[in-house]
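USER:
Working in pairs, take the chain set out below, taking as long as you need, and write a paragraph about the fold.
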Amino acid sequence: MESSSDNSRKITVTEEICDILQAALTHGWNFSYLAMVKHHLSSHCSELVDVNPELGTLSVAGDALYEAATTATDGIVFRAQNGGILIVFTSTLLPLEKNQVSNSDSRVCLFEFPASLRFSQLRKAIRISYSKQQNIPVTFFASLGVRFQGSVVDISAIGAKIRFDGNISDLLESSEIIADCQIRLPDESLLEARARVLGHLYDSEQDISYLRCQYLDLNMNSELQLKNLIDDALRQMDQSDLSLGAL
């Protein structure tokens, strides 16, 4: 994996590309391809149908996709977006005989499995707040193996605010690197990451400590877990707003 900016990465590892495309297929991400129409580049709706890295193929359905792909000299540019994640990659149409044998639907075209993929996060700043009724447990280890148990106050794609019972100020330092941070997500999956402490505050009246941290070295699976968590929360908010509007 090659990093080019804080929120955009070029991915060249086949397994990681496959994981992302499988997520796009499973969750029905908005898929499209770019084509030249009368000297203008335009976007056309399409659908990811199958991902097969073992055969080195990708099946995509779209109106006029075959015609666009046969006239594209450098391959077709595909885009897929879901919530705050955008992926972009280029793929080349496989020979006509493979397309005819593999597909009975004329809209479905067979492309080469992409050698690289651009993965971008568009909504890093969005934070989702959680109440005591929506408990997301957190466990992390500070210096010398000191272990803390807490819960998420709010969370984003780049960090989290966590609450702990009691005063932990004496055991932490700002900019300290946390050796291990584990967040138990609502679907019972475990997000593991290193984290940097950005600041902490102790509320003596409530005997509660609040800590703000930034994730370090998140792997692609953890990024997708966070993305799904945030998207699910935003979707629930949208549905709640629609329900209130109907009253």
Observations:
- The chain has four helices and 16 strands.
- The CA atoms of residues 128 and 233 lie 7 Å apart.
- The two ends are 49 Å apart (CA to CA).
- Confidence is low (pLDDT under 50) at residues 1-6, 240-247.
